[in-house]
Amino acid sequence: MSSQNANPIVRSGNGAKAKHQGLRVIPLGGLHEIGKNTCVFEYGDELMLVDAGLAFPSDGMHGVNVVMPDTSYLRENQKRIRGMVVTHGHEDHIGGIPHHLKNFNIPIIYGPRLAMSMLQGKMEEAGVTDRTTIQTVGPRDVVHVGQHFKVEFIRNTHSMADSFTLAITTPVGVVIFTGDFKFDHTPVDGEAFDLQRLAHYGEQGVLCLFSDSTNAEIPGFTPPERAVFPNLDRHISQAEGRVIITTFASSIHRVSMILELAMKNGRKVGLLGRSMLNVIAKARELGYMRAPDDLFVPIKQIRDLPDRETLLLMTGSQGEPLAALSRISRGEHPQVQVKSTDTIIFSASPIPGNTISVVNTIDRLMMMGAKVVYGKGEGIHVSGHGCQEDHKLMLALAKPKFFVPVHGEHRMLVCHSKTAQSMGIPADHILIIDNGDVVELTPDTIHKGEPVKAGIELLDASRNGIVDARVLKERQQLAEDGVITLLAVITTDGVMAAPPRVNLRGVVTAADARKLSVWAEREITWVLENRWNQLARNTGGKAPDVDWVGVQREVEVGLQRRLRRELQVDPLIICLVQPAPAGTPAYKGRADAEPDTRPAPRGGRRDGGGRQPAAVPQRQLVTAAASAAPAAAPASAAVPAPVAAASKAPVEEPEPTGRVRRRRSAAAAG
């Protein structure tokens, strides 16, 4: 398709034809949050991706390892993807690529040498190296993605080496996409921000600037990376015993300074943490980090050195449960135990959401007797993101016609937009957007289009299994209210053949076991009397076709409603049904059990043969849980194995004339 076509026909996310005029920019992650930065550029029938990152789970995401953006829009439009460009190698910009490649191909990925080297290892581990081609780029390199996108890589400065801002030339104009940046005029690696090239585009005319907003609330300039050098030097030189330092493994400049200080102070370095080992190996291989081989000592051998000659560099600055320092703080690391003479330095600040984990780790280390150095007042960490004066300089150099703040939480985006207005950009030329919003650009206009589907995908520890909303809600129920399992023995002609067995795990309730058993039997009885004709179908054979999963669901719904109403608890209910042959003697419940006064549905119930099956009388309810095992023994000896299905928490609904089934079964009956 020609780039002169101003009215291209493309397909929207739902597959229907739609007309889109001009350039569309669609962030799928990184808005109203920190992390999982993922953006789509779209013109005509072509899509280009900019970064594809991940985020880390919040406290309520039980069993979740990483959080990814919902890529439904990309999967539906995968044939239109022409390639990807990467700004730098942090996990929140490249960590999602191997996962995405399992779902759709990306023809080619362009990015910095360091980022592409790290990505290659991730792809090999995930087994997706055949799903794309990797191409490295350098400063001022220009690549073409499809027919409509020309991208120049402009060197910037960040907490990670080999980082770039993008100048994207499109049929409607030039878009500057800053990536993560700050203006560091004394970079550790000597690779300065290419201000001249950025200013060149500003002079030629920039249609729109998409700019990092992480530190938009903080006045002034972000200090240079070198600012931490004297403070780290002071703490290392004054330490009487071992020095243990934790920082982001990907902070190449910080790690380089720490290795330089280790040599200066006569300390050998032991490395802990898989990511720390991998990143240092890649950085040394590519020349971004220089250190002699004899500086490093295997962790098993470094224990034999004097403490005064030892420095341990490790992961765990964010309190990650499985990171090296976190395990050390819990006394669970096989090689390293904390000593009272240790000096432990946190050369990082907590990412929003990780603060509690970090302070808990610090507390545990202090209780072990170590000296812990942390916090802004110590001057041992500086951000890799620009503050308000950095943002003003970026705006002054780029001179954009339109402005969109990205990469930050909502308050950061609002603050950044105010900074842009102070630099002369009209308020109606600025958009504050969310994930899934569509920015539509023409040479003269900017506005929001129809949004596309956006959200999150939660991956378990394998990074293969998707933790869907139902599973996450069940895990939350387990954490908050526990679980109740219920075993019911029911014949194929709709008779309860044994008392139900109820088991509680993690449920706090004043109700005794007998009452819960009574309620469980009541629900089973109600289902058999009022739902059996919908759940059992006579197929003309000897035994009816019974929807056992439906029986389970009905019992679960009823018992869950009762527990909410009577006890104000909402545990996960799991009903197991053990089918018994027709003609098995009915269980004779206790005569002193309280009756169920709920009205039956109109018309009562009948089985497929037109007769009323034998029903358990309303007052013949359950025995105490302690007597359940002997009573069930005769029936269970002749019945098949149980059929099990985990319930999903139902939405409470009124039941004036009996419950109505609202949910589909999640599994087939065995």
TrEMBL record:
SMART domains: Lactamase_B. Keywords: Cytoplasm, Endonuclease, Exonuclease, Hydrolase, Metal-binding, Nuclease, RNA-binding, rRNA processing, Zinc. Residues 584-670 are annotated as: Disordered. It is found in: Cytoplasm. Residues 35-232 form the Metallo-beta-lactamase domain. InterPro entries: Metallo-B-lactamas (IPR001279), RibonucZ/Hydroxyglut_hydro (IPR036866), RMMBL (IPR011108), RNase_J (IPR004613), RNase_J_2 (IPR042173), RNase_J_b_CASP (IPR055132), RNase_J_bac (IPR030854), RNase_J_C (IPR041636). An RNase that has 5'-3' exonuclease and possibly endonuclease activity. Involved in maturation of rRNA and in some organisms also mRNA maturation and/or decay. Belongs to the metallo-beta-lactamase superfamily. RNA-metabolizing metallo-beta-lactamase-like family. Bacterial RNase J subfamily. Homodimer, may be a subunit of the RNA degradosome. This is Ribonuclease J. It comes from Cyanobium gracile (strain ATCC 27147 / PCC 6307).
